[in-house]
């Protein structure tokens, strides 16, 4: 069974598979040498991640909530040579870096690369512990924004951010309202092992890649009217959803690998995992992607079946959905699932879900 508590933790009964580093692990503050130069923001595909999704900061968050900011900062400074353990975005970031390594080999002079920015409203005093942890895990993250409690939205725009991942649903909504692709991530007790050589990204369709136009028909008039509407409009492309631009950015990098004859073993693979039925409403989804000039590597039309079992087979580094029901179902089976709070599903929702997901956040 799974629940979402006010600390933005998806709790699954059963074995706890998270990696926790013992307090005895101490880092030597050192700076790795010979790191490649980061690309200019205007050329890069920028992924902004908050500290709380890149690393497991549950204990520190508890201190902040129960004892306040001063005790929180004091604790962080006292423990700045002790590393944070990986959080839900960690494997995704490592996969981005693996893709970059291959891109640099194929295109040594190109700056069309992923660039990860640590975007956090932590106080700058916490910065040393974050830097030491990043070096400990051998992550290539050179750009930090520690905003000291201020909104990160202006910085996200300045960095030409293509995707923002945070544990704070309020900040995620702010980003979406400003046209920035964003999703809320949760601490999960169970995370499935994923590929270290191929980045796999899975998307829901309606209200994620596409607008919520069709979802509105379904919510207002039911399934039969939805099928009628999709059949009548199958040659009219859907409007874009909040993550269309991120799929576009992934496709741009995929084509660089295709250009070197690596279509069949491309280190980026994308998936459409939708509750739509293939025969009755799948045509419009596929024609919309074609009209945008975008390819999706695999399309799974589940006709209302649970998404968790399919995602367990795909083993994506990240999955985006606009409905918490699907996010929880996927996470229960070990998929790192993110919530995109966009569209009509956020207004017509089961009692309690919205309350559970609007917690006060810090870091």
From TrEMBL:
Polar residues compositional bias, start-end: 1-16
One GO term in the molecular function aspect is:
nucleotide binding
Q: Name one GO cellular component term.
A: cytosol
> Where are the residues of the annotated region Disordered?
1-43
Pfam annotation, one family: 5-nucleotidase
Read off the InterPro entries from this record.
5-nucleotidase
GO biological-process terms attached to the record: adenosine metabolic process; nucleotide metabolic process
Protein known as: 5'-nucleotidase, cytosolic IAb
**Annotated organism of origin:** Labrus bergylta (ballan wrasse)
